[in-house]
Structure formats: C-alpha cells, structure tokens
Amino acid sequence: MDHGKHFSGSGSGINKNESKDRKKLLMSRQIVLGNEKEDINKMADAFINNFRKQLKIERENSFKRFQDMIHGGA
Q1: Where are the chain's structural domains?
Q2: 21: pLDDT confidence band, cut at 50, 70 and 90?
Q3: SS3 letters for the chain?
C-alpha cells in the first residue's frame, strides 16, 4: 500500500523536491502567523487605547457632575 511517501537512497523517506516544498510551506505559514500576531497586537492596542479614552471621558463626566452638585447645579 502506497501512502504517498517516496523513499530515496538516503533512507530519509522524503525526496529533495518534497523537502523543499515542505520548507516553503512552513516558511509561508510562519509569515502568515507573524502577520496575524501583528494584526492581533494592533487590534489589542486599539482596544486598550479606546478603553482608556472611554475611562477618561467617564472620569471627566463624573467630575463635572460632582462639580455641578457641589456648586448647586446649573
């Protein structure tokens, strides 16, 4: 039964073309994963920055309400 493996004289089980193709595939996967990591990091940074902006707005609104309450509101 042939399972798609080619045996060479060196006994490695994979011929040189398959080895080169496998290396290319692995390198392309690493590049894609690297790009995905960058995208995820960018998305995380954007989320954190947006969250900080929202907290700042909430603090400012809360402080304004506090000041209005202290000064009798207007």
Answers
A1: 37-73
A2: confident
A3: CCCCCCCCCCCCCCCHHHHHHHHHHHHHHHHHHHHHHHHHHHHHHHHHHHHHHHHHHHHHHHHHHHHHHHCCCC
